[in-house]
Amino acid sequence: xxxxxxxxxxxxxxxxxxxxxxxxxxxxxxxxxxxxxxxxxxxxxxxxxxxxxxxxxxxxxxxxxxxxxxxxxxxxxxxxxxxxxxxxxxxxxxxxxxxxxxxxxxxxxxxxxxxxxxxxxxxxxxxxxxxxxxxxxxxxxxxxxxxxxxxxxxxxxxxxxxxxxxxxxxxxxxxxxxxxxxxxxxxxxxxxxxxxxxxxxxxxxx
Length: 206
Known about the structure:
The protein has a five-stranded mixed beta sheet. It has a two-stranded antiparallel sheet with strand order 1-7. The protein is 29% helix and 21% strand. It is built from four helices and seven strands.
């Protein structure tokens, strides 16, 4: 060949493109840097959701946690309940059966109650009480004397009369009455009334 491309000796010029080492180095450094930033961001997010490596205090319920019921103290009655010896009961018969008022009054007296009037019920109630009975008193007796007397006749209806004065209460015997609540059961009900058992509350334990 002539001209400037003359071959001399036993070496031939190599016709290759120049290597792009610089570009490859730049791309490699950029890729490593991008991966580093992405990894750092992932660690930051992990710390945020896990509390920086410390146990999270409010991230759901842990596996194995159990809900246990434990008693919590119930508040004492807001009003002190009177004992039976401080309650005067009028025993009135609203049925056609004779002798029920006296018999019931004698039993209540044995159980510690004071007895007032004993006889037939007023016309308003006479032969008109279909249930076991009615406990009637002034408004102030609703959460004091009536609940105490109610332990002796558990299913009796409780009523108050706003116009009524004094502290006496009535036990009006109805058609369904047979006898007072058994004394042992009445005593347990009275004890529970004065000292209620604590209600169970659910607690979570892990």
